[in-house]
Amino acid sequence: MQDRINFLDLRELIGIAKRGSPDRDEARKLKQWAGLLLEHANKRFGAQLTPGVQAGLRTLAERHPNFSEAVDFLSAEMAFARAAGHGLSFARLLLVGPAGTGKTTFCLELAKLLGVPSQVASVNNVQTSAFLTGTERHWSNSEPGAVFQLLANSAYINPILVLDEIDKAHGHHQGYDPLNGLYTLLERRTAERFFDAALPGVHFDASRINWVATANSLEPIRAPLLSRFNVFQIRPLSEDELREVVARMFGELLENNPAVARQIDGALPDEVLDALCEKLGTGRDIDRMLRVLVGRTLQAGESAVSIRSIPAHAAKMQGEYGSEHRRPIGFY
Q: Sign of the C-alpha dihedral, residues 215, 64, 187, 198?
C-alpha cells in the first residue's frame, strides 16, 4: 500500500506565493489557499477494501436493492484497487433513474461507508464550469471550485465528489457547456495536471477523485460526457421492496430515538404499511413521513400506530418537495 502521495508540485506553489499580488485581498486569498494546499500536500489513500467495508457494501445493496449493479461494480473496483495496493480510485459512476429512486441518499450512504471526505454539488441551474474549476483571478470575487476545495481540505487523495442532477445543467443553448470542465477531470491523463482558474500556475493531481453523478434522464447529456462514465439505470422500488424499506426505516427511527421507542409499538401493522406505500408512491420522503406519523400517534396519546395517524396531506408533501426542490452545493 502506498503510504503518501504528492498531489502537487511544491515548486509551483512556492513560485506563485513569491510572486504575490499587489492587491491586498487577492494576496490574502493566495496565502489562505496556499496554506490549505501545504497542510495536505502529502496525501494518503482511503476507501480501502477491508472486511468491514465488504460487509458494509453487502448491507448497502440490501438497503438499496435497486442499486445492486452499482454496488457490484464498486465491489469489483475495490477488489482491483486492493490488489494494486491502494484504495478505490477514479471510479466514475452515473446513476440514472426517475425522481424518488434514492440516488442522492445512496451517494451519501456510500460516502459514509467508505470513510473519505466528500462533497455534493447540485448541478441544477449551473450556468458555467466555475463551480468545478474556479473563477478566474481577474474577477474581484474569484473563488476556487469544488475540485480544489475538496482536495485542499482533504488528507486523502481519493475523496468522493457527487454531482447531483447533471442532466439539469443549463447553458448549452447559449453556446457554452457548463460541464466543460468535466471533460478534463474525467480523463486520468489530463486530470493528473489539473489547475483551478483561481490559482493558475499550480497544477495538482485530481486523477484519484471518485465521481458519482446522478440524473433523471440521459437525453440531455452529451455523448462525449456519457462515454466517460459507467452508466447504471436505477429502477423504482417494487411494492415489496418499498414495504421492506419503510419497515426498516421505521425500526431505525425508533432505534435512533430510544425515548420515543419506549412509547411506541415497535412494528408497523400491515394495513399501515400498505397505506403508507400507497401515499408515498416512491422512496422519497419516507423518513419525514414516519416522523409525522409517530408524532401524530403520540399527540393522540396512543402507542400503536394506525391508519388515522397518517397525515392526509402526505401526497402533497411529496409533490412540494419533489425534483424541483434541490439542495445547494455543500459539504457533509
A: positive
Query: Helix axis angle, 24-39 relative to 10-19, nearest 10°?
Result: 160
What are 155's three cell numbers? 488528507
- Confirm if 126 and 112 have CB atoms less than 8 A apart: no
Residues 113 and 222 reside in one and the same domain: yes
Tell me what pLDDT residue 140 has. 53
Q: Tell me the pLDDT tens digit for each residue of 77-99.
A: 999 999 999 999 999 999 999 98
Torsion of CA 130, 133, 139, 143, to 10 degrees: 100
**What are the residue ranges of helices labelled H in the chain?**
10-19, 24-39, 51-63, 68-84, 103-114, 130-133, 146-152, 180-185, 188-191, 223-226, 239-255, 258-261, 270-280, 286-299, 314-320
Tell me the CATH number at 74. Answer: 3.40.50.300
Q: Are residues 89 and 223 in the same domain?
A: yes
Cα separation, 9 vs 41, whole angstroms: 9
Distance (Å, whole) CA 93 – CA 116:
17
Instruction: Give the chain's domain count.
Output: 2
Cα angle, residue 63 at apex, residues 60 and 64 outer, rounded to 5°: 85
Distance CA 95, CA 230 (A): 9
Q: Tell me, yes or no, whether 195 and 213 share the same domain.
A: yes
CA dihedral 64, 68, 72, 74 (to 10 degrees): -40
Residue 24 belongs to a domain: no
Among the candidates 236, 271, 299, a domain finishes at: 236
Residue range(s) defining the domain that contains residue 278: 239-320
Domain termination residue (choose one: 173, 202, 236): 236
Same domain, 174 and 257: no
Q: Looking at the whole model, is its pTM more than 0.70?
A: yes
90/60 same-domain check: yes
pLDDT the model gives residue 329:
33
Give per-10-residue mean pLDDT for the chain (332 aa): 73 70 67 78 92 96 94 97 95 94 92 94 82 71 85 93 90 66 94 87 91 95 94 94 92 95 94 90 81 95 93 50 36 28
